[in-house]
Amino acid sequence: MRLHSLTLRDFRGVKDRTVQLPAMGTTVVVGDNEVGKSSLVEAFALVFELPDDSKSKRIADIQPVGHDVGPEVTVELTLGGRELTYTKRWLKNRSTELSVIEPDGRRQTWTGREAHNEAERLFNENVDPVLWQTLMVSQGQSLILPTPADAEPLISAVTAESGTPVDGASMPLVSAVEHEYLRYWTPRGRSTGEFAKSAQAVASAELRSAQASKAMEEVVADIRRAERLALDLDDLSARLKDHLVSVEELRERKQATDEILLRRDSVRARAETARARLENHTRTRLDRERLLADVERFSQTATELAELRTEADTVAKKAAETVHAAEAALAEVVELKDDRRTDVQRAEQWVSELMDRAELDRLTGQQAELADVRARIAAASAVLDGIKVTDELAASLEDARAHVVEARAALAAGVPEVLVRRVGADVVSLSGTGLDAGGSPVPAELAEDAEVSVLVSGELVVGVPGQVEVTVRAGGEAATLRARVDESVRREKDLLKRAGVRNLAAARELLRKRDTASAELQEARRTERSLTAGGDPGERIALLCARLGITSSDEAAAEEDVPTAKNKQPIIEDVPGQMSLFEEFEEDTFDFELVLPEPAVPGDLAGAQRALENARAELAAAERLLTDAEFAAAQARKAADEDRSEAQNARARAELATERLAAAVAELEAARAVLADEGVEAEESTATAEVEAVLEELTAVQEQADAAGADEVAGELADSLAVAQRLQGERDTLRDSLRTTEGRLEQSGRDGLATRQDAAELELAAVRAEHDNLKRRADAARRVYETLGRHRAEAQTKYSEPLQTRIEALGRSVYGPSFRVWLDDDLAVAERELDGSRLRVESLSTGAQEQLAIITRLAISHLVSTGEGSVPVIFDDALGWSDKARLRDMGALLGRAGDHGQIIILTCMPERYEYVPRANFIKLQ
Amino acid sequence: MDESITFLHSSDWQLGMMRRFLGPDGQARWGQARLDAVVRIGEVARRTGARFVVVAGDVFEHNQVERQTILRACEALKRIEVPVVLLPGNHDALEPGSLWTSAQWTAHKPEHVTVLTGTEPLEIVPGVEIVGAPWRSRRPVSDPAAPGYAELGPAPAGTRRILLAHGQLTSLSGGMSEVPTIDQAALEAAVADQRLHYVGLGDRHSTTEVTERIWFSGTQEVTAPEETHPGNVLAVTFTADDIAVEPVQVGAWHMVEHHVELYDEGSLIALEDWFAELPDKERTYVRLAADGSLPLPLLSRLDAMVDAQGEVFASVERWAKFWTVRPAPDAADLDSLQLSGPARAAMEELRQALAAGDEEAGAALTLMHRLARDAG
């Protein structure tokens, strides 16, 4: 099909416009928005689709708004070799006209509905709708990749070029095969649906069947067990029965032999009696023999022991004497030790006395010093007691003195001071009141050349007797001043009186004396305290004097006596023969003599202490001596005791021997009284004969018992009874086991286990048959699916090759030599490879997708261009997502595509296509 | 004894038996049919005036059948109005745990039913005594009939003695039996010297006359296609000096084994006809063996036919061991499908694989053929 021209009248916004289109090459129809580019495409579609009387809304939509006119379209085209001119007007003055010039030049025309039908028929006959839809890209659809598998012209072209016929007729089969496959298998090849369920059912049924079989096997095993138990039980019962018969036989035998055994027991009893009697007689004989022997032996023993007794007595006596001597020696040593202890005590007493006397001396000195100190205290105290001046009193005196001086000064200043000097020989008398001559008495008369200055606070009368008498009277103030002087003087006097002094200076002297006495008193008291710190020396002196037997008053005399007494004591050092006491000791002789030296009395303490140490050494030596003497005495006593004991023993044994001899003789006499010595042996012989006779009888009975097996029968019977008991036990155990097993079987019978097993196997067989059937079908379905799939894939590869080759050829002019594509079953591009990177088309950029869609369409157009079914390629706006470089390449591509067919591009952006070589641009106004 | 006496001899009821080839539904109906046949024995007893009924072993399929089976058996036995004597057989031996000693049986056993548990003669009616050799174990060690009569002397004058025994005859087993068999010669000798007057045998499911007085009654209802005369009860009549044994059918089911060779449409049609002519289809089990090869369309038709007959009959089993029908695709088959391209190539590949002996390819080819035909 080739479009030649399209004329639109009163179509949407187009009043009247004709667009002429070249039959070959690329035409770019340029127009701004709303000038009707898309209306051209729409008009072409409507003119073939809708008759002029169509009530479709699409017709109503194309009528210009507000104009009651009929939209009209005229299209001129070549279709299957025919030249068609087809005009249709809708709504107003509806009409359809078709003019066809056949290839042979014949011309035919149709009008009205016939024209529509004929045009529709011609279009449908010559234009493959799939191809038409594929190659006509409406506005906004340029991104959609074409799926042209069902386009017949494409199929023809592909088939012709690849040599592989399209297998469209097989598609229902393919679908059926796939459907069949998916009944049993998932796309990933795992069993599914009924088939998978049947496998599960088989597994479940197998499990149930196995369980049922196992239960039944246990039942069968129980049956076998019970059978075996029953057989064993029968066998055992038979054995038990036989055995009980033999037990009964043994019992009878035992009854028979019991009589022999009774007899044997009787003979045995008699034998025992005879044997006892014989033993009696034998014992009697032996006793008699022993008695005779005893008498002889005891007699000899008594004689020997009497001699021994005499000898022992002698030894004991001698030992007693030895003890006596030892004890005498011991007594002497004890006495010596007591004397030595007395010496020590005396020395200790003397040392003590000497120490007391030394202490007495010291205390006496201390007492004298104490008396002296106390005298000093008394003296100081006396001084202190005599002094009445105190610090306060002295201060008052100082104050009173100051007041007096002050009052006098005030008086002197406030009263007339009258200086009276005797210049002549005449007596000058002075009298008056309130007079003061500065502490000195106002003389009644003045001596020659004497003068006196008098303060007059009252009235002074100076007269030269007879010659003159002058009276000086003080003023009013004078009396007050005078009173103050008198008062202060009187107070001072009182204080002096209290202090016991005549004046202040005396008071000050007394204070100094008081301080001295006070210091001395304190010192003396300290000394007194230190001297009396250990108690009153007087008491201790009294104590010591009492202890020493002197009075404190004649202490001096005692002191005088002591050296005398001391001088009377002998010197105790160098005591001769101190150790010779021990050396002279001899065991056998105790008649030594003690030489006791007189103790010397030393006069001094050191000598006394040395004497004491010597006395103590002497005592220790005496004590050692005593220990030795005690030991010797003890030894002697012990020896004497032993000798005495020995003598007593000898005496006792001798007496016992005598007694025993007497007893043996008495016993022998008694025994002989019962049976004379001759009768003893005779009786024993008789008893021996009797025993032998009974034993002979016993042997005979025993032979009888042995012959009858009497002793074994009882044992055999006991063994046999034990066996019977064991067999009965075994039988009871078997019986119990059998009952238990039978009980289980009874239960399994109630449970219908065999039926269950059969049912389980029945079910298993059924599901297994079903599964086998399904498996056969599933395997067949898979085999078919896989085989067909493999062949289809191979065919697909071959079939898509022509289109694939063209797409790749066109694409490489844009993208370069690494550009490759893969097509799917619908011949749609599924994947693209560029520079080694292979991607699904969905993953490509928008621009790349659009470019690939354009390339694919151009490739399809190229493939079908040689056939009759070719159609124009129409792009209603495209390449909106390409950059400038790509626009250049795509432009070149679109230009080349025009060499093989009719390419029509509608756009409002002509610059996108400025690189299309040889493009025919048509601009719509 | 001049009076003639009739009794019924049956055996191998094997109540509780299951047949896996019948499927659950078929099994349920067939199980019921076996009980129905017992009830029909009661009807035959009434009709023939039989004085008693003997069952020579294997009354039950197992000793451990479910309770329902025992109770239903008791119900069916109640429908027999004359005394019934049952003999334990190898399936329901008087072994430990036997149902004959179970409370389930003893509590529900009808009064007129006697189980032979010993070898002592039982006078079932005056002038007729029954001796039996019950199985005491599933594994007897010697002639299982011998204990029933070996120690017996001649029957008392005027008394007919019937031996009930269960097991294969040495003469019929062909020496293949795993368990000891019954000495036929000894039996015949006992019959000959009138120690026995009739020997009622069980174990063989087909009615079989061994001698005039020694019979296998066969099972009351067929249990396998191999059985030649199943589904009968024997009406045995003692007359003055003679005996008459008459098989009476009580079974309602059929089990059929059928072998066919299939090679063309004609042979297929013949099989269809064979199916069509069989009676009592809902009570018939068919074990079908087929050999040969069929073009793909016919193979599909065969499958469809067998599947359809399976719905009509109690069960139609393709006997796997003997089911060797192979697809025989020819060019015309494939052409008729008008396949081209990959589909045709795939089918061709499968055809060649089949020709090379790939059995699975046959099934695949058949399937693909069917799918292509349905899709076309």
UniProtKB/TrEMBL annotation, chain A:
What does the record list as coiled-coil region(s)? 233-284, 605-674
* Pfam families (UniProt xref): AAA_15
Keyword Transcription regulation part of the UniProt annotation: no
Membrane spanning stretches: none
Entry-linked InterPro entries = AAA_GajA/Old/RecF-like, P-loop_NTPase
Among the GO molecular function terms of this UniProt record, one is:
exonuclease activity
Going by the entry's taxonomy, the superkingdom of the source organism is recorded as Bacteria
**Residue intervals of the Endonuclease GajA/Old nuclease/RecF-like AAA domain:** 1-51
BP GO annotations: double-strand break repair
Keywords associated with the record: Coiled coil, Exonuclease, Hydrolase, Nuclease
In this chain, the stretch annotated as Disordered covers: 733-754
Composition skew (Basic and acidic residues), residue ranges: 733-749
Q: What is this protein called?
A: DNA repair exonuclease SbcCD ATPase subunit
What is the protein's species of origin? Kribbella caucasensis
From TrEMBL, chain B:
Which InterPro entries does this UniProt record tie to the protein? Calcineurin-like_PHP (IPR004843), DNA_Repair-Maintenance_Comp (IPR050535), Metallo-depent_PP-like (IPR029052), UCP033093_metalloPase (IPR014577)
**UniProtKB keywords:** Exonuclease, Hydrolase, Nuclease
Superkingdom of source: Bacteria
GO terms, molecular function: exonuclease activity
Pfam family for this entry, one: Metallophos
Q: Which SUPFAM superfamilies match?
A: Metallo-dependent phosphatases
Residues covered by the Calcineurin-like phosphoesterase domain:
6-138
| Name of the protein this chain belongs to | DNA repair exonuclease SbcCD nuclease subunit
Biological source species: Kribbella caucasensis
